[in-house]
Design goal:
The structure is a single chain. The protein is α+β, with helices and mostly antiparallel strands and 357 residues long. It folds into 3 domains: 68 residues, Uridine Diphospho-n-acetylenolpyruvylglucosamine Reductase, domain 2 (2-Layer Sandwich); 128 residues, Uridine Diphospho-n-acetylenolpyruvylglucosamine Reductase, domain 3, CATH 3.30.465; 108 residues, Uridine Diphospho-n-acetylenolpyruvylglucosamine Reductase, domain 1. It is built from 8 helices and 20 strands. The chain binds uridine-diphosphate-2(N-acetylglucosaminyl) butyric acid (EPU). Uridine-diphosphate-2(N-acetylglucosaminyl) butyric acid binds next to strand 13 and helix 7.
Length: 357
């Protein structure tokens, strides 16, 4: 086990924020994690699990021991008449994994192409795009309890997926004994995901219906797109409206799309007829946070080197590049100013999507 001290984290977060890890250990297997837990010094210290760093805002140096997840491997576990089950190590790059599944002849993840980050982070925020959420294709995952070192497996119900939400984003109630069973309770800070398995239904059916994809179908005249065609469209759509983190630092959508009651929505529509909204199956109405922020005039604005992307107001970006990057403080000041102005105009509280460290 190699413990690196004072490690710069700028290359390991897609915002490109400067911060250091006091101690960082690369973990490539469950045994590596158990070795850290068994260490007389590191074992006792708080831990921070780092995946692709695509959904975090670093606001200072990280004091807990950083476990950088580098568990690799991809395989077709099982092929039945009803589904392909594919598995990937948590450290695999998400987009490369999606590309690999298509190359193996196992479609189903194409709508989720080009999402930054790692496979292990994908269930944490239940990534979603263009009409598909991870939970729609999830089978199970393996993880290690960072208190006890025990491995465990969770199915979809145990992951308690919600919109950009899961059991991994919630802290267990204080009444739960630290060495007690953890399944089904909040696992934030407590679990390190090592492998994720996906169930890709057979026969494959395209998921279209999302406005941007419908437009591509109309423009191209292709009525029955293949999975590869949808993958190509999704990559083109994302590249046209979302900044590539390798070029402009960002963490994807910075806020969740808020939901309101139909009554609240009618009230807002009466004042703001143009508001983009989608009725949800449970009767609530989801509002486009990007539209709300845009309507408040934030597109292109900045606080220091943190800015609002000029093609999609839901994305905050690092305008200073690697040389003069935005600080986590600037990003959070900008985020709070946006929250205040959206609240003052619409009475809606926007909830940040990334984890603030
Ligand atoms: N809009 C504006 N101005 C803006 C941004 C958006 O008017 O500056 C309007 C758009 O015109 C559109 C609506 O808002 O009518 C929704 O915009 P878009 O289709 O770009 O999707 P989104 O709701 O902003 C969500 C996800 C994205 C995902 C896309 C596609 C969240 C928080 N974001 O964005 O996910 O890629 O849908 O499915 O749910 C991410 O989570 O990091 C992410 C990029």
């Amino acid at each position: 086990m190699i413990v690196a001290q004072n490690v710069p984290l700028q290359p390991y977060n897609t915002f490109g924020i400067v911060a250091k890890a006091r101690a960082l250990v690369r973990v490539a297997s469950a045994d590596d994690v158990r070795a850290v837990l068994a260490d007389p010094v590191l074992g006792r210290e708080p831990k921070f699990v780092l995946g692709g760093g695509s959904n975090i805002v670093l606001t200072g140096d990280v004091r807990p021991v950083v476990l950088k997840v580098e568990v690799m491997g991809r395989r077709l576990v099982e092929s039945t008449p009803k589904a392909w089950i594919v598995e990937a190590g948590a450290g695999e790059n998400w987009h490369d994994f999606v590309t690999w599944t298509l190359a193996q002849g196992c479609p189903g993840l194409e709508n989720l192409a080009l999402i930054p980050g790692t496979v292990g982070a994908s269930p944490v925020q239940n990534v979603g795009a263009y009409g598909v959420e991870l939970q729609d294709r999830f089978d199970s995952l393996d993880a290690i309890d960072l208190e006890t070192g025990q491995s465990f497996t969770l199915d979809a119900a145990q992951c308690a997926f919600g919109y950009r939400d899961s059991v991994f984003k919630h802290v267990a109630p204080a009444s739960v004994a630290p060495d007690g069973p953890v399944r089904g309770l909040g696992l934030a800070g407590r679990a390190l995901i090592t492998q994720v398995r996906f169930r890709l239904p057979r026969p494959w059916k395209p998921v279209l219906g999302y406005l941007d994809l419908e437009r591509r179908m109309q423009d191209s005249g292709i009525r029955n797109p293949s999975a590869q065609q949808i993958y190509d469209w999704v990559c083109a759509i994302r590249s046209s409206k979302l900044p590539d983190p390798r070029v402009i630092g960002n963490a994807g959508s910075f806020f969740k799309n808020p939901t309101v009651t139909p009554e609240q929505c009618s009230d807002i529509i009466a004042r703001e007829p143009g508001i983009v909204h989608y009725p949800m199956p449970d009767g609530s109405v989801k509002l486009a946070a990007g539209w709300l922020i845009d309507a408040c005039g934030w597109k292109g604005k900045s606080v220091g080197n943190a800015g609002v992307y000029d093609r999609q107001a839901l994305v905050l970006v690092n305008r200073g590049g690697a040389q003069n990057p935005a600080t986590g403080g600037e990003v959070m000041t900008l985020a709070k100013a946006i929250q205040t102005s959206v609240y003052e105009r619409f009475g809606i509280r926007l909830e940040p999507e990334p984890v603030v460290v």
